[in-house]
Amino acid sequence: LGSLPSCTHVHHAICSPRTRSLSSMDELFLTLVKLRLNLMHNDLACRFRICDSTVSRIFHRWLGVLHDKLKFLLVWPSQDTIRENMPLIIKQLYPRCRCIIDCSEIFIETPSCFRVRAQTYSNYKKHNTVKFLIAITPCGTISFISDCWGGRVSDKVLTQVSGILDLLQPGDTVLADRGFTIDEDIILHGAKLEIPAFTRGKK
Asked: What is the pTM of this model?
């Protein structure tokens, strides 16, 4: 990326739209740059010497390709696999831990539609966001990602509708923070919710 010209140092003529096709490797590189650095489309258009609409078209096409090719990496491991790879400290404290869950939010542009704007406004982030539930195994691999919802949805509701509860088995333990008031939902699936003690303000 360092060898690519910066838009702030390139003459306007170079940044003007022009017809140019990129190789598949360059298209993939553009997509990865966008995902990693979140550069504006006009910035990427300048760097790759293509027009803004082409950047958008390439990015969205490759998102679909990456999803199709990489979704096999997202696996919900068996109880035996979890226990075989469980770190010692978690095995000592929560030997039946199946997953650790949390919700994450991503900032989005403010929607023009008032209804959508209200649905995506996060009181926690004070911004419009999309929210999703993510679960990791005790050893740190991602084992579940939910569909995205508007940032207004609560962690409890998102957990209930995400589908992760249907993956739990009797005897499983789920670790979460205090925002997850889902004890009853997890108990109904024969599992148990554990909220580790917080140490803020303690020595």
From this structure: 0.77
Q: How confident is the model at residue 178 (pLDDT cuts 50, 70, 90)?
A: confident
- CA 23 vs. chain centroid, Å, equals 28
pLDDT band at 20 (very low <50, low <70, confident <90, very high): low
Q: Average pLDDT over the chain, rounded to whole?
A: 88
d(CA 148, CA 124): 17
Closest CA to 127 of 107, 154, 113: 107
Taking the C-alpha atoms of residue 186 and residue 55, their distance in angstroms, rounded to an integer, is 44
Which of 141, 166, 164 is closest to 84 using CA atoms? 141
Instruction: Determine the pLDDT at residue 162.
Output: 96
Picking from 123, 97, 95, 107, the residue whose alpha carbon sits closest to that of residue 176 is: 97
3-state secondary structure at position 99: strand
Smallest Cα–Cα separation from 76: which of 163, 154, 156, 155?
163
